[in-house]
From TrEMBL:
Xref: SUPFAM superfamilies: MFS general substrate transporter (SSF103473)
Subcellular localization, as worded in the UniProt entry: Membrane
Gene3D superfamilies linked: MFS general substrate transporter like domains (1.20.1250.20)
Organism encoding this protein: Coniochaeta pulveracea
Entry protein name: Major facilitator superfamily (MFS) profile domain-containing protein
Length: 229
């Protein structure tokens, strides 16, 4: 239970929950409106063609997910990756709201997918990187992933204004702008601030008088632990 309470008292877990819900709710919603856009393009005359035309946005998102994973792993700039990628999604859903032109909406789904899928794996990795200790990490990831998945309830109840789905796209846009983009900016700035304090030695007193084992037990509160930003 000590690891559970350590996780609950860690502000990073709560911000991580907000960030993850900002990409996980749109993830669940994505498959709900894509078929109607394909129908508006007139590509639903045959089931096979309709199914095939739903593949490209997912394929593009899969490729970018691998690219972002590669970049984030090597630069340790997961927050910046989230911020930049989320802007693609925000632009995509803005296009979906702003126009009823099927071709433009279809292009918007590409940007929407590109802005959602890479942030899923990147956010989970970001939280894992910044939580030291296997038990605390398990609790944190349980809260973050569980809360994100719970927001799928929202996804299934906001698409009821076919074919434009103003409410649905608007809610997704709000989630991505406020929680995914805003949360990632906040987390990045706060972690960089904390790392700067540790480099200046302002957290060294946390380890004073403690044995090596006790210092190790501090986890990510160790003065020599630097966060992935």
């Amino acid at each position: 239970m000590s690891y559970f309470w350590d996780a609950v008292k860690d502000w990073k877990m709560w911000v991580g929950m907000a960030i993850y819900m900002g990409c996980d709710m749109p993830l669940y919603a994505f498959s709900l409106f894509l078929p109607s856009i394909i129908a508006n393009l007139g590509w639903n005359k045959t089931v096979i063609r309709a199914q095939l035309m739903s593949v490209p946005p997912y394929a593009a998102a899969a490729i970018l997910t691998v690219i972002i994973g590669f970049i984030a792993d090597r630069t340790r700039q997961r927050g910046l990756c989230n911020i930049l990628v989320s802007l693609l999604g925000i632009a995509g859903f803005a296009m979906l709201i702003a126009t009823d032109t099927p071709a433009v909406q279809y292009a918007g789904t590409f940007l929407g997918a590109l802005g959602i899928y890479p942030c899923i794996s990147n956010t989970i990795s970001w939280m894992a990187n910044n939580t030291e200790g296997v038990y605390k990490r398990g609790v944190v990831l349980g809260f973050v992933i569980g809360w994100g998945n719970l927001n799928g309830i929202v996804s299934s109840n906001i698409f009821y204004q076919a074919p434009r789905y103003y409410v649905g796209h608007g809610v997704i846009l709000g989630y991505m702008a406020l929680f995914l983009f805003g949360g990632s900016v906040f987390m990045t700035l706060m972690l960089r601030r904390e790392n700067a304090k540790r480099r200046r030695g302002e957290r060294d007193h946390w380890a004073v008088g403690k044995t090596d084992k006790e210092v190790e037990a501090l986890g990510d509160k160790r003065p020599d632990f630097f966060y992935t930003t």
